[in-house]
Design brief:
Order of helices and strands: HHHHHHHEEEEHEHEHEHEHEHEEHEHH
Distance between the termini: 83 Å
Radius of gyration: 28 Å
Helix content: 40-55%
Length: about 525
Amino acid sequence: MTTSSSSPVAEGTPPGRGLGPRTAAALVFGSSAAVLVVEIVALRLLAPYLGLTLETSTMIIGIALTAIAAGSWMGGRIADQVDPRRLIGPALGLSGAVVALTPAVLRTTAEWAPALLFLIASLTILVPGALLSAVTPFVTKLRLTSLAETGTVVGRLSGVGTVGAIVGTVLTGFVLISRLPVSGILIGLGSLLVIGSALVAWRTRGGKAGWKGASALALVVVAGALASTVAPGACDTETRYHCARVVADPDRDGGRTLLLDGVRHSYVDVEDPTTLEFAYVRAIAAVVDAAFPKDRALAAHHLGGGGLTYPRYLAATRPGTRSVVSEIDSGVVRIDRDRLGLKPGAGIDVRVEDGRLGLRRLDTAGLDLVVGDAFGGVSVPWHLTTAEAMADVRRVLSDDGLYVANLIDHGELAFARAEAATLAETFEHVALVGAPVDIGLDPSSRPRGGNLVLLASDRPLDPAATQRELDARGSGWRIATGDTLTAWIGDGRPLTDDHAPVDQLLTPYSRPNAH
C-alpha cells in the first residue's frame, strides 16, 4: 500500500488552472453586489409605471431571486462541462451591456409598448441577474483544486458573496440613489462590469479575442448611455424616493404641477397660494373652514408635504397659522424651494422625517389640525393608517382638534372603508366627504372611486356647515355621517400595526388624477 502526503485533486480541474484567492473573492463579491444594485434600482426605475406598492416590490424581489437561483444552478452545471475561465469574462460583459441598456429600454417600452413592460422588465432583471449569479459557481470550480478544502472554499466564497450582496444593498439604498440618477447608476455599473470583463479576459485568456469582445460590449454601453438621454419618461430630478417633474400650466402664469413617479401630486400657483386646483384640496379647505372661525390662526401639522399647497393656503388665508410639515423626501423639499417658490418665514416649517416618527415628537394636545396627505405611489403608507397611528394623531390634537385625511381608492373602496372603520374606532365623531356616488348617497350607481376625504374629531362635527362650504367651492362633493356612513363602512375592519394589508385592500389605477 502506498501513501501520499498530498491531497486528492478535484476531478476535471487540472492543477495550475485555478484563480488566486484574492481574484476569486473580488469576482464573487463584485458580481453578488451588482445583482442587488440591479434589483434595487429596477424598483425605482419601474415605480413611475407600475407604482410603488408591496406587490411591485414583491414582484421585483421574486424575479431577482429567480435569477439568482437559475444562474447559480445553470452556472454550476456549465462549469462542470466547460472551462470556467472561458465563461467569467463573457458573463460579466454581457450582463454589463444589458444593465447599461436597461434605462432606455424600460422607459421606451413603458411609453410606446406598455403591454410588454412586464416581460421586458423581467428580462432586464433575469438576464443580468442570472449571468452574474453564475460567476460564483464558475469561480468556485476554479478554486476547488483539492477535495480536502471543498468545505473551506465553498464556505469562504459563499460568505464573500453574501457580504457583497449586503454592501450592494446598503451602498445603493443609502448612497447611490440619494446622489445619482438611476440611469447613471445602471450605466456606471454596466461600464464597471464591461471593464471587469476585459480584465478577466486579459488575465485568463489573453490575446486579442478577449479584448475584441470587451470592445464590442463597451460600444453597447456607450449606446445605452446615449439612448438614455433621449428615451421618454426622464425626470427633472431623481430624489431619494421619486422621479420628480414640475410642469408649467399653460393657462396660468404661476401654475405649476408637481409629478412624482408620473402621478400628479400637487398643483401650486406660485403667485397666488389661495388657488386650489384639485377637488380634494378644496374639500379639505371647506372642512377646515366649517370647523374653525375663518379669522382664527391655527396650529397645524401635515403628514406629507408634496408641493405644500394647503400649508401655503393656510398661511395666506389665516395669518399667524403655524404649519409643521413632515415630508420624508428631502429632494421634494428642495423642489419646493427651488422650483415652487417656497420662501423662508412663510409660517411653514418643513421637516425631513417620516410622518409617524414626526407625530411621536409632538407635544400632547398642542394642535388644532392634523392633515394626512402622505402617499407612496398610489397608496397611503400603511403605518400611517392604523389604529395606533390614529391614537397618536388623537394624542397631539386639542379637545376641539380636527383630523382630515386624503385617501385614494377605487373598485369596492375596501381600503377607504377600512380606514373609516379605523377612525370610527379611535374618534368620537367621523364623517366622509366625496362624490355622492362614492360615499353611498347615490345607491343606484356603482362607485367610480378617486379621492375621498375623511374627517374625525372628539367634538361634534357640523355637517350642514361643511356642506355649505363644499357647495361654495362648487366641487359637487357631499358629506356623509351617522347611519349613512355606518352603512357605507359595512364590514370594513379597522387596520392595526399587526394587520394592515393596505396594498391588498386598495384598488389602484394607473394614473390617478391627483393626490
